[in-house]
Every structure is written in C-alpha cells, then in structure tokens.
Amino acid sequence: MYDLAASIATGILAEPAFQANTNNINGNLKVIGAALAIGIGGIGPGIGIGIAARGALEAIGRNPETEGAVRNTLILGAGLAEAVAIYALLIALIIIFVG
Q1: Does the global pTM surpass 0.90?
Q2: In angstroms, what is the C-alpha Rg of the chain?
Q3: What's the whole-number mean pLDDT along residues 61-80?
Q4: Is a pLDDT exceeding 90 seen at residue 14?
Q5: Hey, where are the domains in the chain?
Q6: Average pLDDT, the chain
Q7: Into which CATH architecture does domain 24-97 fall?
C-alpha cells in the first residue's frame, strides 16, 4: 500500500506556498507587533478599572450617602484609564498601516 503520510509530506514541502517568503515576513511581524501592542496595552486599563470599581462599590456599601461623589470620581477615573487603551489601539493601527 502506498504511504499516505509520505506523499502528503512530500506534497506540502513541494508547494510554493509553504516555502519561506521574505516579502511577507515584515507584514507578519507588523501583525504580531500590533497584536502585542493592543494586548499588553489593554491589560493595565482593564485591571485598573476593575480595582477602581471594586473600591467604589466598597465605598458606597460602607457610606451610601456618598454615592454621587464616588460615582462621579469613578466615571472620571475609568475614562482616564480607558484613554490608555485607546492610545494602545492607536499605536497598533499605526504599526499596521504606517510602519
């Protein structure tokens, strides 16, 4: 019987699509760099907003009369933390389309 695995391996290695293409390496590195920029850049704001929300809920739970002030401060802080994620997105887009 004909060895199917050997024929598949020979066919894959002979295909030009699986050979090294030096023209596309820079494009692949751009995509990886953009993914790392937005992935790592989104970790900090996510953690920061989570910690801030927890603190706000604890503060409101302990002193319900301060709900309005705590809520306003939380929204302002979340907006500032979210700006960091937007900057990371901007850097990722610059890497893909400009670099």
Answers
A1: no
A2: 25
A3: 94
A4: no
A5: 24-97
A6: 83
A7: Up-down Bundle (1.20)
